[in-house]
Amino acid sequence: MIPTLNAGAPFLKVHETGTLDAVIGSVVPGSARIEQGRGVAQVRISERADVEPIWRDIQAGHIRAVSIGYQVHRFDVSKPEAGRDSPTRSAPRPSRAQAKALMPPRWSGPRPRPSSARTTPAR
């Protein structure tokens, strides 16, 4: 997956690849790597006006994490290890990697609702 990210994978506001406005930037080619067990990459943010509010939230620290989406073509399944009930499944060649902005981890407060959610005005 790192090679796919390093090829300039898209940075999305949601894991929705059906619309171009979901793309808010891209991974800087060659910047993705694993450091001390964590994925690290530089992302270049689009200069489009509709992305500006998201960029401000990133700068302010409201958005601090990402989710990596990928497509799996095949799983390799190995026997359960000692002390485990289920086998280990690994994806040897995932593709179509993408990164998505996330709410801060461990945030227990309100989260954004899907755009199709029904809303009621406050009274």
| SSE topology string | HEEEEEHEEEE
Characterize the overall form. Answer: elongated
How much of the sequence is in beta strands? 25-35%
Q: What about the largest sheet?
A: 5 strands, mixed
Mean pLDDT: 75
What is the C-alpha radius of gyration, as a whole number of Å?
18 Å
Number of domains: 1
Number of strands: 9
Strand order of the largest sheet: 5-2-1-9-6
**In angstroms, what separates the terminal alpha carbons?**
48 Å
Structural class: mainly beta
Oligomer: single chain
Structure annotation, total helices? 2
Question: Uncertain spans, ≥5 residues at pLDDT below 50?
Answer: 107-123
Share of helical residues: 10-25%
Architecture overview:
It is a single chain. The protein has 123 residues and is mainly beta. Helix content is 11%, strand content 31%. The chain has one domain (2-102). The chain has helices at residues 2-6, 52-60; strands at residues 10-12, 23-27, 33-35, 38-40, 43-45, 65-71, 76-78, 88-90, 95-102. Strands 5-2-1-9-6 form a five-stranded mixed sheet. It starts with a helix and ends in a 21-residue tail after the last strand.
